[in-house]
Amino acid sequence: AIRAFNNFLDSYTGEDKNLLERIVQIEIEGTQLAKVAAANADQSVELLHLGGGTNTTDNDFAPQLAPDGSLLYSSAIGGTTRIYQSELMGESWSKGELPSNFPLINNGQFANASLSPNGQRMYFTVCEEGTFGDLKTRCEIYMITLDGVVWSQPKRLPDAINAAGVTNTHPFVTQRNNTEFLYFASNRSGGGAQGGMDIYYATRNINMPGSAFSQPINLGPPVNTNGDEVTPYYDADQGRLYF
User: Fold this and answer.
1) How far separated are the first and last CA of the chain, in Å rounded?
2) Of 41, 53, 184, 239, which has the most beta carbons under 10 Å away?
3) CA 141, 160, 203: angle at the middle one, nearest 5?
4) pLDDT at 14 exceeding the cut of 60
């Protein structure tokens, strides 16, 4: 693969060569990483399949453990993407079901749930009907709050986050001190956009009610590139962003 990439760089003369050189160099780095990754793998890590309670023949993705120990995840079972919940029963997970206390959403497909650390706020995306998973499918980010044991009706986040005419998706929420950080992916232009889907973040004071977030900030290079950066996950303990 590396030889083929280098042969391409030596022979290609198109007008977009400078752009493609950057892309190909990233591919070469990835190929070099693959050569040593297996030898450096942590053999103490055990991967277990969660079984047929949560996994189906359709796409099952975006899992997150809730404070009560249940598993929230998204599934496209039946051709429509929804958020499901499963309980650990002994050593196996129960069949995933729509959360009984979740609000009714009639239009669009909803997925990619992210719970605040205290479990009181949930962010997720509602996407247009159609081919879910295509980055061209337009999505917007919504928020619900837990009132006792029942979730509120969904509230669309402000236009600053849900920019018009573009996709805004993959929310991930974390908190530090008195500030809540919302990371998400968007293919908007301007404001430092690097191209394709980029990762942004916005903040709010957790002592203030509602969803008054700051203007989103593009994480910029080296996180964002002219390709697509999606599915951010911030490990607060390690201070490390995965995407």
Assistant:
1) 24
2) 184
3) 80
4) yes
